[in-house]
Amino acid sequence: MYILGISAYYHDSAACLLKDGEIICAAQEERFTRLKHDSSFPVKAIEFCLSSKNLDIDKIDYLIFYDKPLLKFERLLETILAFAPRGLRFFLKAIPAQVRNKIWIREKVKRELGYKGEILFSEHHLSHAASAFFPSPFERAAILTIDGVGEWATASYGIGAGSKIKILKELYFPHSLGLLYSAFTYYLGFRVNSGEYKMMGLAPYGKPKYVKEILNNLVDLKEDGSFRMNMKYFNYGAGLTMVNNKFCQLFNGPVRKPEDGLTARHTDIACSIQQVAEEIILRMVKQVKKETGEKKLCLAGGVALNCAANGKILQSKIFDKIWIQPAAGDAGGALGAAYIAYCHYLDGHLLKKDNKDLQKGSYLGPEYDNNCIKEFLDKQKIVYSYFKEEDLLNKAADYIMEQKVIGWFQGKMEFGPRALGNRSIIADARSLGMQKKLNLKIKFRESFRPFAPSVLAEKANEWFDIINESPYMLLITKVKKNKLRILTEEESSLSGLDKLEVVRSEIPAVTHVDYTARPQTVNKSDNYLYYSLIEKFYKKTGCPVIINTSFNVRGEPIVATPQDAFKCFIKTNMDVLVLGNFIIKKSDVK
C-alpha cells in the first residue's frame, strides 16, 4: 500500500511516501529547485519519492493533500468581506492565486503527475496533529498544534490513541500566535515565514520592557491560553503588510528596514514578544494537560519550531515527556496527511516498539554513494583525496582541532529545517572566534545569531541541563554550570549586542548570551558515521561537542546534491569539503 502525501501553495511545499504505514522518504521542494521556502507544487520532491522505490505514479494507491482548499477559500472570502473595502488589494492578489492553484488541486494533480487514482484531503491542523503523534514513540498522548493559520484554525489540541486522533478544541483566525509572532518579525525587519528564527535568537540580547504594552494593547490573553488579538494594530487581515501605523506608534518607530542596524529598542521588543509567546504557549500546555489528563505531549505547527518555548515546556514538567515533529511547519503537513490516509481512511495500524519514534532520525531525503560523488568530481576535474572510513574520521577530527571549517556531506538528506549531521557545516565548539567567523565569512548572516552543538548522546547531560534526548535539535537548554566561566564586573555590565563578544563557557561558539544552547544529541543507531566523527574528536580532545549548522548560506536552502555542496563550498570561506569518503581542500581548488 503506497500513499503519497503532499503540501503546497503556502510555504515549504513537500512530498512524503508511506509504504504500509512506514515512512519511506520525504523531502521539501526547495532542496531541488534551490528556491528557499518554495511553495510551488512539489513536482521534484514527488519525483524523488517515486524514484526512491522505482515507482510509476500509477503504483500510488492514494494521494492526499494536506489541507482543504474550499474551506481556506471560504475563510479568504469571509475575511475580505469583513474588512471591506480595505481588503480590495488583498482580494486582487490572493483570490486569483487561490483559484488557480488550490481550488483546482485535483486537476493540478492529474495534469502535473498523470495520476488517475483516488485523491483525498485532510484538514490542515489535523495533518499537523498526525505528523506529531503518529511518528512519535507514544501509544497515547495529548497533541498541541500552533501555527499561522490553516483553513480557519490557528491552534488546536486533541488526543492521539493507537491509530486515531481526535481534535477537541481549536482557536480560529484572525487570532493567531503564529501571525502575532510573524507581525513582530516583520516589524523588526526580518522576512515573515523565514526570519522568526532570527527574532528568537535576538531575544536574549534584550530586556522584556514591552510585555505590558503587548498584553494591554495587542492581546487579550485568558488563563486557558486562548486569546483575542486587537486587529486595530494589524494589517494582515485586509492588507499586504503585517502591521499598520498604529502598531508602529505603539512601539515608537517605523518598521525597521533590513539594512538598518539593530538597536537596544529592537532587542527589547524581540525579548518581549518571545516572553509573551512563551507565556501563551505554557498556558495552552497547562490547559491541554487539564483537559486531557495525558502524561505525554506531541507538538507540531510552525510555532513548535520555537526551541526556546519548547525548552520551557520541558522544564515546566507539566507533561512527563514531549515529542516534536522535526518538520513541524507545512513541510511536515505532507507527512501528516499521508498518515491520515493510512490510519483514518484505511484503518491502518502502526507498530511502535522500544519507545523509539518512527521518524528514522529524519534522514528521509536523497543520498549519493561514492561512485556518484567520484563521477561528479572527475567530470569537474576537482582535486580530491579518497580515504577509508577510519582514516576519513581521523582526518576530519584533526581538521576540526586545527580550527578548520568543514562542509560535511553524507548519507540521506534531512527532512525539516535542521541539518542533523548529513548536510552540515561543522567546526570546533571550543573556539573563541568561531561563532563570528561562521556567521560573517561562511553563512554570510547576522553576527548575533547563535550556533547549535552536536553532542554524543551519552555525554549530553555532562555538558547541558538536558533531561531527555534531543535528536532533532528542537529544545533550548542551559549549559552546565561547571562548564561556565565567571564573568568580570565589566563583562556582566554589557548590554545589547555588546554581549556577543564575551566568552561564557568552555564551548563559547555554541553558548548563547543567556548561557543556553540548542543541542542535538547524536546516537550511534541513528547516524553511525556522524557519531563516530564526534567520538573521534572526543577521544582526541576530551570534548564530545562540535558545532553543527546547516550546509547553506543565507537566503539559500540546505544543499541536496554533491554539486550543491561544492558550489556552496567554493563561494564561502570553508576550508575543507568532505563528500562521502572524499576530501577536497580549498587550497587545492583553482
Shape: globular
> How much is the radius of gyration in Å?
23 Å
Main sheet specs: 8 strands, mixed
Which structural class is indicated by helix and strand composition? Answer: alpha/beta
Number of helices: 20
CATH superfamily of one domain: Carbamoyltransferase, C-terminal domain
Q: Main sheet: which strands, in order across?
A: 13-22-21-14-15-20-16-19
Label the CATH architecture of one domain.
Alpha-Beta Complex
Oligomer: single chain
Per DSSP E runs of 2 or more residues, the count of β-strands stands at 22
| CATH fold-level label of one domain | DHBP synthase
Helix content: 25-40%
Given as residue ranges, the uncertain stretches (5+ residues, pLDDT < 50) are none
Nearest-integer average pLDDT: 93
Q: How big a fraction of the residues is strand? A: 15-25%
**End-to-end separation:** 50 Å
- What is the top-level CATH class of one domain? Alpha Beta
Task: Summarize this structure briefly.
The chain has a domain of 219 residues: Alpha-Beta Complex (DHBP synthase), CATH 3.90.870.20.
